């Protein structure tokens, strides 16, 4: 029996046929013929199987990270801000900051910048920053998606966030140092800068006044965060503050 199906309905003939190849993708065509032998092609929907590759960020310690760089050809991507990067960074690394200095001059930003500079900026030497809108595009301009990347920051938080962004952007082989460069012992990597990699996050009055400044600075940082995320409650508290 001929495998081609033939069916007549309201004077129209249906000839479905499938064109296939060695792949698992195929296209089905529906040929419509009227009694005057005029053919009208049309498409039938075909369910296609899709191959999905799920990437997963690898979290490694400093020793394993060194092996990835020296033995497996991973490129180092430093996502810290400019100030920490200049204090110390891994030799021959690539620098694309996840956060950049916030120079906006709207009233809300000016207030936040002032609070930041007087608290966490003063005590910990942290710059006032905002997310880098060009981060993913900047990385893509330097690396193809199949690149092996070791993403680093000082504490491990920014590198984890950056790695997730890169994974979502199509990078398939991304690793991070758990807890960041602060866990890297001296001599693990060849570095450039005025201090050790593990100390690049230390700045401000904390480095001068020791534990007292650390405790006081921590309190002020929490105060700054409270004002930032709960401005209405902070304003009410300020109303109860004694005035001269």
TrEMBL record:
GO terms for cellular component: chloroplast. The keyword Transmembrane helix applies. SMART domains: RHOD (SM00450). Keywords: Membrane, Transmembrane, Transmembrane helix. Residues 70-193 form the Rhodanese domain. It comes from the Eukaryota. PANTHER family: RHODANESE-LIKE DOMAIN-CONTAINING PROTEIN 9, CHLOROPLASTIC. This is Rhodanese domain-containing protein.
